[in-house]
């Protein structure tokens, strides 16, 4: 049929005929309908939401509604494409290992031939178990290794692995190494049991779980056989121990360790060339010899052990002691039975108070003489043989040296001044009848010299200090015929008078006293107070010429303390630039017939004796009066001030800084009426705290009162020794750590001074 020249209507008719066979007249007017394509749908048939995946590689089968429409199918796990196919059969591959021990979301993405994307209707989760690692395993591993420090391992591959990691565990430590293929070498292995496992990571940087661990153990070399007895010799340098090692394979050698039982001694030596192993210079004792084998990798076997006893000499028994006082020390003599097999003896003495020890070697003799200062001592003796081996120390024994308790009849005990001299002696200034009295004792209670100073007036001297030359300077005052006099005297180091000067106070002053003196910048200053009924005290600081005793300067002290009058008690050197003065402030109604103490004060003076700082207490103990007790200087140049009530129950303390600002103020209730001479009895300790020694009025018990570094009362300790008859009138800490007390001679009749030197 030739339709080439037909009109369109004729063509349509012809098509109609060809496709439909031409219908009735009614059919000629109906429209032509073309069927629509159905949307492409896909679903997973091999997995579901209840599936557990155990295989490391899993086939995922997919059903499609119209294969003719499919251009490609992709498997998505947790939204990531893991496989894509473009033709039937519609089965995708999933390396499920990389999602082991987790829940994975499965979905399918289909692309039709019009490049439209169709997703599976309902993504679902599957559980991937640890069984995905079941196929993973190392190649054959030896359960035990020895004499090596490396191991080559291989393992089964994992599909599509980019790289592998090998995990190595030993004794709580963990190491991970990386490998690009299925083998690796473990190096620098130490002794112990190892667990190893591996895992893989794919191109999506998805890492699977570790394989099941496998175990191997790197063992130490085998221990040597039972040891032979070493050869033991005694030489001049000590015991010598020689051990001959057994023959060993190449690469192995013996290490010998010597351990002193109960001590920290641990000696080692190696025999890499097969030579004998030697320890020399050993001291006596119980030892354990340990022989071990070490390989080329430094791995050490368990030791084979042998106990060895190296005998020591014995310390002497029945040691006798004798003491004879010589000069200012004690000669102590030890004697014991001789032993010809010993080279020398070693005697140690320890001062129980200072803990200072002295060791003395005695050769070619069975006696020992040596000198000791005063104190309580512990001593021991030890023998040393010709090889230098030492015995055990003897039992500790006690030796009392240089403590004393002496008395001076008819010497006042209540008003004394005591100082330690540069040559470790003790000088005491007191009264004997109407005169002053001086005595110097050595460190053992021996009287080196004793002097009575007979002058007009009643016992004028009451302050005492020593010059660098060993000479002594004392000051004081007396009242006679309505006039008061200041007195200063200088004595040689033997107590002989060099000069003695008296100076009458001016203006007809009624009474006066010198209460303190210091040596400051090589100059001597004394503190003088002169008073009368109307004006209170006039305070001056006087420099005395140490060559003549004459007054060089007399500088008035005027403090800025408002309406109060000043009763100055103490001078104290702070440093080469500063001097402190301290005492008590009085009310305006002061008279000799009343006691009107208000509170304590402190002032600081410069080198010209000008006032730079001043401070007064706050009468913290009201309603009781607060009078000056002592002032001390700590290592930080803080001033420590003690004020005490008349009742002696409360002690008011103040800690002042360099500018006299109050760092601490305390009302300290001592719960006892302590008889304390605070200026002498209060002593600074190394930690900045203060200890004061005194007697309880009521119980006649000796106490040490302890204050912390802020002068807060901490406690008071009672002591049974020494037994005093009264409160100590003076307490001195001597240079060797002993304590010197002055006390009343018992019974209470007449006058007598008791001096006790003891370790306290």
TrEMBL record:
Write out the coiled-coil annotation as residue ranges.
none
Q: Which SUPFAM superfamilies match?
A: Fibronectin type III (SSF49265), Quinoprotein alcohol dehydrogenase-like (SSF50998)
Q: What is this protein called?
A: Fibronectin type-III domain-containing protein
Q: Which InterPro entries match?
A: FN3_sf (IPR036116), Ig-like_fold (IPR013783), Quinoprotein_ADH-like_sf (IPR011047)
Look up and give the organism this protein is from: Pseudoalteromonas rubra
| Lineage: superkingdom | Bacteria
One matching Pfam family? Big_7
PROSITE patterns per the record?
A: PROKAR_LIPOPROTEIN (PS51257)
């Amino acid at each position: 049929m030739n339709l080439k020249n037909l009109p369109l209507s004729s063509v349509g008719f012809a098509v109609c005929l060809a496709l439909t066979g031409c219908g009735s007249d009614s059919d000629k007017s109906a429209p032509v309908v073309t069927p629509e394509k159905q949307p492409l749908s896909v679903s997973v048939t091999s997995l579901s939401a209840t599936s557990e995946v155990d295989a490391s590689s899993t086939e995922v089968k997919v059903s499609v509604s119209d294969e003719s429409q499919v251009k490609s199918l992709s498997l998505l796990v947790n939204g990531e494409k893991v496989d894509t196919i473009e033709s039937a059969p519609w089965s995708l591959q999933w390396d499920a290992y990389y999602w082991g021990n987790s829940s994975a979301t499965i979905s399918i993405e289909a692309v039709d031939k019009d490049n439209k994307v169709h997703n599976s209707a309902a993504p679902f989760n599957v559980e991937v178990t640890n069984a995905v690692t079941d196929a993973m395993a190392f190649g054959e591993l030896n359960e035990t290794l020895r004499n090596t420090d490396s191991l080559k391992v291989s393992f089964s591959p994992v599909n599509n692995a980019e790289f592998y990691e090998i995990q190595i565990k030993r004794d709580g430590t963990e190491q991970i190494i990386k490998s690009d293929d299925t083998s690796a070498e473990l190096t620098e292995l130490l002794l112990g049991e190892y667990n190893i496992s591996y895992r893989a990571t794919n191109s999506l940087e998805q890492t699977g779980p570790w394989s099941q661990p496998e175990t191997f153990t790197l063992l130490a070399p085998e221990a040597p056989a039972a040891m032979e007895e070493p050869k033991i010799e005694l030489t001049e340098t000590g015991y010598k121990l020689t051990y001959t090692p057994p023959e060993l394979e190449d690469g192995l050698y013996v290490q010998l360790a010597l351990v002193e039982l109960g001590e920290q001694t641990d000696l080692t030596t190696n025999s890499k060339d097969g030579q004998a192993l030697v320890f020399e210079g050993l001291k006596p004792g119980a030892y354990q010899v340990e022989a071990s084998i070490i390989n080329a990798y430094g791995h050490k076997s368990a030791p084979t052990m042998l106990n060895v006893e190296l005998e020591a000499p014995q310390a002497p028994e029945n040691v006798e002691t004798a003491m004879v006082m010589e000069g200012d020390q004690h000669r102590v003599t030890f004697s014991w039975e001789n032993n010809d097999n010993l080279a020398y003896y070693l005697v140690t003495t320890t001062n129980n108070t200072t803990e200072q020890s002295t060791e003395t070697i005695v050769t070619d003799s069975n006696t020992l003489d040596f000198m000791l200062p005063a104190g309580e001592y512990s001593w021991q003796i030890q023998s040393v043989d010709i090889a230098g081996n030492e015995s055990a120390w003897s039992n500790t024994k006690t030796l009392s040296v240089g403590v004393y308790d002496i008395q001076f009849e008819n010497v006042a005990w209540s008003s004394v001044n005591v100082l330690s001299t540069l040559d470790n002696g003790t000088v005491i200034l007191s009264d004997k009848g109407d005169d002053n009295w001086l005595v110097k004792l050595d460190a053992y209670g021996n009287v080196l010299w004793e002097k009575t100073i007979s002058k007009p007036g009643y016992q004028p001297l009451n302050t005492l200090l020593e010059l660098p030359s060993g000479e002594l300077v004392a000051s004081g005052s007396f009242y006679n015929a309505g006039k008061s006099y200041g007195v200063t005297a200088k004595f040689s180091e033997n107590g002989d008078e060099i000069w003695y000067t008296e100076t009458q106070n001016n203006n007809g002053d009624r009474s006066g006293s010198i209460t303190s003196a210091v040596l400051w910048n090589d100059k001597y200053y004394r503190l003088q107070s002169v008073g009368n009924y109307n004006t209170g005290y006039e305070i001056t600081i006087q420099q005395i010429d140490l060559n003549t005793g004459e007054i060089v300067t007399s500088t008035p002290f005027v403090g800025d303390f408002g309406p109060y009058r000043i009763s100055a008690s103490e001078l104290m050197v702070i440093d080469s630039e500063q001097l402190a003065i301290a005492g008590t402030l009085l009310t305006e109604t002061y008279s000799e017939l009343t006691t009107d103490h208000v509170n304590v004060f402190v002032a600081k003076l410069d080198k010209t004796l000008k006032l730079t700082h001043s401070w007064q207490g706050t009468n913290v103990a009201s309603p009781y009066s607060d009078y000056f007790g002592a002032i001390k200087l700590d290592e930080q140049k803080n001033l420590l001030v003690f004020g005490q009530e008349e009742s002696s129950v409360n002690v008011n303390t103040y800690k002042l800084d360099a500018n006299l600002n109050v760092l601490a103020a305390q009302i300290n209730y001592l719960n006892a009426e302590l008889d304390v001479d605070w200026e002498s009895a209060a002593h600074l300790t190394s930690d900045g705290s203060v200890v004061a020694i005194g007697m309880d009025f009521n119980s006649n018990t000796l106490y040490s009162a302890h204050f912390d570094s802020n002068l807060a009362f901490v406690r008071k300790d009672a002591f049974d020794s020494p037994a005093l008859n009264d409160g100590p009138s003076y307490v001195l800490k001597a240079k060797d750590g002993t304590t010197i007390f002055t006390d009343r001679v018992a019974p209470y009749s007449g006058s007598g001074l008791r001096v006790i030197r003891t370790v306290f």
